[in-house]
Amino acid sequence: MTLATIFLSEVVGTAMLLLLGAGVVANNILPRNKGAGTGFLMVNFGWGLAVFAGVLVSYKSGGHLNPAVTLGVAASGAKEFVAGIPVDFMSILTYIAAQMVGAFLGAVLAWLAYKKQFDGDAPEGFKLGVFSTGPEVRDPVWNVVTEIIATFVLVFVVLASGKFTGASPTPAANLGWLGALGVALLVVGIGASLGGPTGYAINPARDLGPRIAHAVLPIPNKGGSDWSYSWIPVVGPIIGGVLAGLLSGVLLP
Hints:
This protein is mainly alpha-helical.
């Protein structure tokens, strides 16, 4: 296993995540769509299945797809991300860089799939909402708190799943693709329970990469990219992920 393999795996997985995740939002909120108005729960399921697909196709790298997960694993004291890839500065940088690139590319692919809808007369906020999150009540402190809590749940449960052994003192069970399904259902649950206040970014790359795509793509009447909010879905998830990693050693003996 090499860092180049890790990079490519995370790019492909995160691109798949954003293509399907941004796609379900576009289908739900942009006009002249078959899925228009299907609601937030449909978005939750769409994002969950997007995670499922992304994790499956990035099996080589362990399917992080999220800087908060990568930093959480590092903070947990793990020695390796996957076999042959130690937890160090270069491997962390490789994961995060690949996640940002993949998120940008996936957002561009979603835009291409919905090009005619984006060219239409949807409100500016709807067009931005396909790419990035935003709060229902704008309060930076509490918006950060929401993202910290939601991301803590994500990373803490992911770390716990890696320790699952059933009832016997054996090495962690290899659940295969069922592990990816478990993460998918977790994301659906987080969205349904904690997604209301901020749209649950729970992933810095998922929000920042597509927000950059929104800023540079030639989308008619798209408005601004809300950079004043952009730090919240980066800082909150990073704090939540690192806290989950640090506390996993105490709370997940």
